[in-house]
Amino acid sequence: MIKVGLRYLGNSAFEMITERGLRIYMDPHIQGNELCPVVLDDLLPPDLILVSHGAKDHMGDAPELSRRFRCPVVCDPGVAHYLRNQGIMENQIILMVWGMVWSFRGLKIRAVESKHISFLREGPSAITGLSLGFIITTESGLNLYHSGDTSIFSDLKLFGRLYRPDVGCILVGNYPGALAELSPEEAALAAKWLGLKWAIPMHYEKGSTEPHRFMKALKRLSPKTKALLLEPGQWQYFPVRKSPRRSLLP
Predict the structure, then answer these.
(1) How far is 113 from 148, CA to CA, in rounded Å?
(2) HSE value, Cβ hemisphere, 13 Å, CA-based, for 176
(3) Residues with Cβ < 8 Å from 135, sequence gap 6 or more?
(4) What is the spatial distance between Cα 192 and Cα 195, in angstroms, rounded to a whole number?
(5) Residue 38 to residue 119: CA distance in whole angstroms
(6) Domains in the chain: ranges and CATH
(7) Are 36 and 8 in contact (CB under 8 A)?
(8) pLDDT tens for each residue of 145-201
(9) What is the DSSP string of 203-230?
């Protein structure tokens, strides 16, 4: 059976291998991520990098990875500006805002709204932009949603109706030293609204109880959704259906 692989790298970072072998890093915060079980030199060359917004724990090592492997980075306008200033070539920067869809080697990358802000310091100045969520449609039609740092908002229900994500990576807590944008209970409600088959909690501190609170709330609010609590470094594989759930929009 053909499968799509997803490896959790701690915080909001994931490595994804599609059914045809394309490698994607999402929010690749490796260096300085206490939950990440690998170092930067351990990572295999990516075909694509997705950055949900400008923050050290989300943009992370995207500039270095893009520079090292000359791969494209999908990001918001603020991160795009920062990458240019870091010497990343223009043809490696894929600027997206909410509603845009980009096709890449058989994949479809859709940028959706995230109720958050993209914010980066650059010397005495600050760069701001639109925070993104992503829906990745693989070559065979598996739909994966990465929430970024969104807070709760009702259009998540619309995303579920329109795009029918199968798998969701959803923040359930806070980055160390910060306040949480989405509580575990709100995250469970978001999973219900999205109509997820599988929900993976992310973005929480080491030793946090928030993933377990999420799983408890999910069982109550969305019993048909299977919670997958991944240890950092753990792979999870998802079967590709012969007849995938098609989104209502192309």
Answers:
(1) 10
(2) 10
(3) 109, 110, 112, 143, 144, 145, 159, 163, 165
(4) 5
(5) 26
(6) 3-232 (3.60.15.10)
(7) no
(8) 999 999 999 999 999 999 999 999 999 998 777 788 999 999 999 999 999 999 999
(9) S--TT-SHHHHHHHHHHHH-TTSEE--P
Q: Judging by beta carbons within 10 Å of its beta carbon (0-12, 13-18, 19+), is residue 177 exposed, middle or buried? A: exposed
How many Å apart are CA 111 and CA 134, to the nearest integer?
Answer: 5
Secondary structure (3-state) at 108: strand
- Tell me, what amino acid is at 7? R
Instruction: Look at the block and give the residue holding tokens 């992370």.
Output: 60
Strand partners, 16: 6, 24
C-alpha 67 chain-centroid distance: 21
Per-residue pLDDT tens listing for the chain (250 residues): 789 999 999 999 999 999 999 999 999 999 999 999 999 999 999 999 999 999 999 999 999 999 999 999 999 999 999 999 999 999 999 999 999 999 999 999 999 999 999 998 888 888 889 999 999 999 999 999 999 999 999 999 999 999 999 999 999 998 777 788 999 999 999 999 999 999 999 999 889 999 999 999 999 999 999 999 999 999 999 998 766 666 676 6
**Closest-CA residue to 133 (of 7, 217, 245, 27):** 27
Can you tell me the distance from the alpha carbon of 78 to that of 184, in angstroms, rounded to the nearest whole number?
29
The tokens for 126 are: 């600050």
Q: Is 42 exposed, middle or buried (0-12, 13-18, 19+ CB in 10 A)?
A: exposed
- Token digits of residue 247: 């989104």
Q: Which two structure tokens, joined as six digits, stand for 107?
A: 């994949």
**pTM score of the predicted model:** 0.95
